[in-house]
Predict the 3D structure of the following.
Amino acid sequence: MTLLRGLVGVLVGLAVSVGFVQLLELMLANAVAGRALQSMDDYALVLNTLPMLGIRLVVSSFMALLGGYVCAKLAEHDEMRYTMVAVLFRAIALAGGNTAGYMPRTPVWALAVLLIVSSAAMLAGGAVRAAAAAATARKVGPYRDPVAGEKS
């Protein structure tokens, strides 16, 4: 059951950090262009301007943070292990999708920056959830153990 929960966490984390980001980016590109874009080259032309790359960095980092948190929350045990698996699969999916043309082409330098920053954000989301789970596990009954520097 733990393995199944972890794998579900990885899949949901990927759906949030890759799938939802792609949907948001395509809606943003259509809104900025002012019309429905027809090809991946049209999307790439709109999405690869410097201001849009900045927006993409912020959006993908925030969604990766959320995806890492959700992945760790669903995994329940070994939160960081499953978050790292999701980060690895996410990097492979984004690099492969960019190379194969399944998503708008991004310059290599921009893709590297997006992957590095958003991967760190996804790990941070998993770490936040892991820390919250550890803090919850330390509580015993209605009372909790004293925190360092706190009087008992």
User: Anything to note?
Assistant: Residues 2-136 form one domain. The mean pLDDT is 88.
